[in-house]
Amino acid sequence: MAPPPVTQPGAPPLDCPFCRIVAGTAPARLVGAGPEVVAFLPLRPVHPGHVLVVPRRHLEDIWDLDEATATAVSRTVLEVAHAVRAVFRPDGLNVIQSSGSAATQTVPHLHVHVVPRFANDRMGAIWPAPADGAPEELDDSARRLSEALQHGHDDDRLGERETAVEERDRQ
Question: Which ranges carry the HIT domain (predicted)?
Fold first, then answer.
């Protein structure tokens, strides 16, 4: 087996399909493009009107996203949502951004799915049945998240996140 291609530090991976689309070296059905964002149809859409919105710059997931790019992506998602509504007249719409394999991210380049929804479509429900949370756990989550928002995100290090997941899984 050949070793993976070598890239410069900070350069996008050579095998990123979305980077190839952005660069114009891979085919895509583009529906919109701006200086910071590209919108195109996925290879296997849920149904007509399903659009992907991706930043031109390679960002692996939401934790790599800066505020300026987030603004550009959000603006484009909103524009695409209005276009999808005008063209396909869906009963509803899902806007989905998945980060990490546990969240079903299959391409490690930040992207947002804009998916028109129709009554009884093949996509089905995307949320599990509701479950009651323990009041103490909900209070603790609210307190910890509020503190993180008030004091910034400087302690958002992967090692700490992994420790928290391990502690949760032991319970």
Answer: 17-124
The closest alpha carbon to 27, from 16, 35, 17, 36, belongs to: 17
Average pLDDT (28-52) is: 95
Residues tagged active-site? 111
CATH number of 17-117: 3.30.428.10
End-to-end alpha carbon distance in the chain:
42
Both tokens of residue 170? 């032991």
For residue range 2-22, what is the model confidence (pLDDT) as tens digits? 444 444 445 566 689 999 999
Query: Which DSSP category does 103 fall into?
Result: G
pLDDT tens-place string over residues 106-158: 999 999 999 999 999 998 888 888 888 788 888 898 999 899 988 876 556 55
Q: What does 104-154 look like in DSSP terms, one character per residue?
A: T--SSS--EEEEEE-TT-TT---SPPP-PPPHHHHHHHHHHHHHHHHS-ST
Give the separation between CA 153 and CA 63, rounded to whole angstroms: 10
- Pairing assessment for the beta strands 51-55 and 29-33 based on DSSP bridges: unpaired
Choose among 12, 15, 44: nearest CA to 29. Answer: 44
Least confident of 53-62, 64-73, 135-144: 135-144
